[in-house]
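Postdoc handover notes: sequence design on the structure in folder B. Input tokens:
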């Protein structure tokens, strides 16, 4: 039983390292795009727009609208 619990305790560390690895790889691929100010502005705009779209969609789906 102790070995089972040790294995289960490893999964959160694995998940965190996996997610950080994915973000690190994506950032390394996108780093050259930030050298051009126009491209950097477009990427930041797309990220902000995507985040706002997700937040507003989830608020509407969960009924958190104040209107």
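Designed sequence:
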């Amino acid at each position: 039983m102790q070995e089972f619990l040790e294995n289960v305790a490893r999964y959160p560390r694995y998940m965190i390292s996996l997610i950080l690895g994915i973000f690190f790889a994506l950032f390394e691929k996108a780093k050259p795009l930030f050298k051009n100010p126009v491209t950097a502005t477009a990427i930041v705009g797309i990220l902000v727009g995507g985040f706002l779209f997700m937040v507003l969609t989830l608020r509407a789906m969960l009924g958190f609208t104040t209107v």
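Context for whoever picks this up: The two ends are 53 Å apart (CA to CA). Don't rerun without checking with the PI first.
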